[in-house]
Structure formats: structure tokens, C-alpha cells
From TrEMBL:
CDD domains: PBP2_LTTR_substrate (cd05466). SUPFAM superfamilies: Periplasmic binding protein-like II, Winged helix' DNA-binding domain. It comes from Dyadobacter jiangsuensis. This is LysR family transcriptional regulator for metE and metH. Residues 2-59 form the HTH lysR-type domain. One of its GO terms (molecular function) is DNA-binding transcription factor activity. It comes from the Bacteria.
């Protein structure tokens, strides 16, 4: 069977025009190269050279091998160069996803500075992984997951990024809004909670939090914009991060209320595999510098 080494040898013999010069370029003795040529012909099963005196001249089979090697070797060299750049951190793709659709708006300005240091690194946001970023990360389909919790997987590394406080978003004509006081959990016992949910196993609000609120009715909607409109028209109350809710307050008919008790402050982490590239480590570091200790990544 022909190998890449065989193709490199026949390429060098052809380009140099003689076995002597090819041997010099390959740092081989003439006898060692002659042995390699015999191996090459044995591997191909046919003679590739006609021996005319002391010269080797390609025959038809040899010319076919050279023609094919001229197509194969440039591709191999390009691949080797790309892999070398990846090893050195000069060229790679970092795939990112987060458990919250609204967590991406602070990312572009951070990436401008990052790309100045790592111009060959491509950042891709994998939106379909939003439902279950940890599954994608563990399966090798992500390099970075932004999540609001940790687990005990020993191969993963969690680094804190920021916290966000949960508030109620409701119609400004709602009786609770007219009262204009911090909410008790019991205030929601007689209310309809409009909650974000993509699938039966993917909820923005934790089961513990929903249990504490104990609303009279829960409506699950997979679109934040639809949730906000339902709330604006008094069809229920929703719970979201304060910084995320703030962007909707410019819409007429909406307001927010805090909770009197500490409720659902979420702790966000950058999760990666422990064995990670320098570029990925640097990206996480930049995220920490920009976000750590803030409650509002929109303003950080």
C-alpha cells in the first residue's frame, strides 16, 4: 500500500531530476533512497521507473503516481499547516452557547478586543444548544457553555461570571403594580405565571422557585416576546432577570417589582473542559474581567 512517505519520495525525485539530488534533499544516502524506491515499487505492485544507465526515468505508472501526488500532497500540507496553527492557538473555532437567549448582547464588544489578540479564532454561537448546553459540551459539540449552576463532572471546569436578580415583570395596571410594594411569594398564589419553556425538560425558572411562588396557574410559552405581550395585556405575570426585564420597560404598559425575600438570584458560570486551549482560557478570562461581580451584564 502506498503511503504519504512514498508520495513525498517520488515527488522529490521528480522535482530534483536525479536520485543523488533527491537523496541530499531528503537527508538520505543514495543506497537508503534506492531501498525506499524498491519499497515504493513493491507497495504499488508495479515498476514506476525505467532504469536507463544510471538514471531513473518515470514510466507510465510512475507518471500516474506523480500526477495523483500533485493533487494529494498540497491538500495534506494545507491540513498539516492548519493543525499546526490549531496546536499553537493561532487558528481554531470556539463554539459557545448559554442557557439564556438574552445573554448574548454583551458578547460582541468583548469579542472585538479578543479578536485583536487571536485573529485566527472563530467564535460561533450554537443557538440550538440553548436548551441543553451542558449536554452539548460533554458531547464535544461546544467548547464553552454559559450556565447558571454547576455539576460534579470532574472533567469540567466552572468559573464564576456574574449574578442576576430575578424580578416580576407585569402590567402597570395590575393591582400589584398599583400597590407598588415589594412582592411576597404569597402575592402570586392567586396569579397566572407566564413562564418561558422550550420543552418539557427545559425551563428558565427552577422547580424550587415555582414551588415557592405556587401560582394559581402556569402558562408555558417558548417565546420571550410573546410572554412580554401577554403580560402587557394583563394576562399574567412573568419572572425574569432584572437586567433582561429592563429592556422592556420602554414599552408602554409594563413595570417591574422586586421581591421582598431573596428570590432566585442566579449564579452564572463559564463551563469548559479542563483540557482547553490558551485562546479559550483567554476568552473566559476576558469574560470574567468584564462581568464578574456585576448584577447587570448589559451594563458591565
Amino acid at each position: 500500500m502506498l503511503t504519504l512517505q512514498h508520495l513525498y519520495i517520488i515527488e522529490k525525485i521528480t522535482s530534483e531530476g536525479s536520485v543523488t539530488k533527491a537523496a541530499e534533499k531528503l537527508n538520505l544516502t543514495q543506497s537508503a533512497l534506492s531501498h525506499q524506491i524498491r519499497d515504493l515499487e513493491a507497495a504499488s505492485g508495479v515498476k514506476l521507473f525505467n532504469r536507463i544507465g544510471k538514471k531513473l526515468v518515470l514510466n507510465e505508472a510512475g507518471q500516474r503516481v506523480v500526477s495523483s501526488s500533485q493533487k494529494v500532497l498540497p491538500v495534506i500540507r494545507e491540513l498539516e499547516a492548519e493543525l499546526k496553527e490549531m496546536r499553537e492557538g493561532k487558528k481554531q473555532t470556539i463554539r459557545i452557547s448559554t442557557e439564556c437567549y438574552t445573554c448574548y448582547h454583551w458578547l460582541p464588544r468583548l469579542l472585538i478586543d479578543f479578536h485583536g489578540e487571536y485573529p485566527g479564532t472563530d467564535i460561533q454561537i450554537v443557538a440550538e444548544a440553548t436548551r441543553r448546553p451542558m449536554e452539548y459540551l460533554e458531547a464535544g459539540k461546544l467548547e464553552l457553555a454559559l450556565v447558571n449552576g454547576t455539576n460534579h463532572n470532574s472533567s469540567l471546569h466552572f468559573e464564576p461570571l456574574f449574578e442576576d436578580r430575578m424580578v416580576a415583570l407585569l402590567s402597570d395596571k395590575h393591582p400589584l403594580a398599583m400597590r407598588n410594594m415589594p412582592l411576597e411569594f404569597s402575592d402570586l398564589h392567586s396569579e397566572t405565571l407566564v413562564a418561558f419553556q422550550i420543552s418539557s425538560d427545559s425551563n428558565l425558572l427552577s422547580p424550587d422557585l415555582v414551588s415557592q411562588l405556587s401560582p394559581q396557574k402556569i402558562i408555558h410559552i417558548p417565546m420571550t416576546e410573546a410572554i412580554v405581550e401577554m403580560v402587557r395585556f394583563g394576562m399574567g405575570i412573568t419572572i425574569m432577570a432584572e437586567w433582561a426585564a429592563r429592556q422592556y420597560l420602554s414599552t408602554s404598559g409594563l413595570t417591574t417589582l422586586p421581591f421582598r425575600s431573596e428570590i432566585g438570584t442566579r449564579h452564572w458560570y463559564a463551563c469548559t473542559h479542563k483540557d482547553r486551549s490558551d485562546a479559550l482560557s483567554r476568552l473566559v478570562s476576558k469574560m470574567q474581567s468584564a462581568l464578574l461581580g456585576t448584577e447587570n451584564p448589559a451594563m458591565g
